[in-house]
Amino acid sequence: MKVIAGVAFKGGVGKTTVLSNLSISFIEIGLKVGIIDLDPQSSVSSWGEVRESEEPMISDAKAKTLGKFIEAGRNLGLDLMLIDTPPSASIEAHEAIIAADYVLIPCRPGYYDLKAVTTTTNSSRIAGKPYGVVFNAVPPRGERGDQAIIAVRDELRAAGVTVLDVLIHQRSIFSSSATTGSTAVEQEPAGKAAAEIRSLRDEIVKQANIQTSTRSSKRKVA
Ligand SMILES: Nc1ncnc2c1ncn2[C@@H]1O[C@H](COP(=O)(O)OP(=O)(O)OP(=O)(O)O)[C@@H](O)[C@H]1O
Ligand SMILES: [Mg+2]
Fold this sequence. Notes:
Layout: E1 2-6, H1 15-28, E2 33-37, H2 43-50, E3 57-60, H3 66-75, E4 80-84, H4 91-99, E5 102-107, H5 111-126, E6 131-138, H6 142-158, E7 163-169, H7 172-178, H8 184-187, H9 192-207
Parallel strand pairs: 1-4, 1-5, 2-3, 2-4, 5-6, 6-7
Helix pairs in contact: 1-9
The structure holds adenosine-5'-triphosphate and magnesium ion.
Adenosine-5'-triphosphate (ATP) binds next to helix 1, strand 6 and helix 7.
């Protein structure tokens, strides 16, 4: 079982949105997925409560019980455990980094967000954990707008920060789907938002070396 922590010391960058959508995209390729909610705001747990599907399995945990929940996921035969964390350099966020095989760091492409992102990437680096920054909620301003973000991405890369290729754009389906315990991936499986999440998933599969061939073929979430 691989453990992926969604961490950003900055709030509102899309940790919960990206992780919940990603969980469904991993289930789509046949993986058994759990989510541990380490955020006292319980966002992902609230999302799970209104979901119609039993999957992914969601557990509300505290920093000191994280290890037990990860062990339980392993014993249940899960392939992947995602951890959602609070929006600060909290004990929870640090414990999640320590427990993770891979740290996913969502970042909005704004000035202050970019300034702040290296505090999270440095924590992952110091802990010896591979990580990837993903630009989320990129304003949909067409090719030119994306080129500007790609230039920022290249600057960060030149400074030694690992930034993933995919850009997740600002799309209303990400917020509207969450209100019914769903995701963009389930509500508009052929949409652009779902395609971006699947590209993110495929990058993470490679970077975190996630085995995808052990399970049966693609399936829909029940
Ligand atoms: N790509 C996106 N497109 C549109 N809305 C988005 C996107 N990503 C996130 N949002 C919206 O931005 C807000 C913050 O997102 P979310 O709660 O996922 O961030 P977070 O990092 O988990 O926040 P917190 O730090 O409070 O836990 C939510 O209202 C969510 O619906
Ligand atoms: Mg959150």
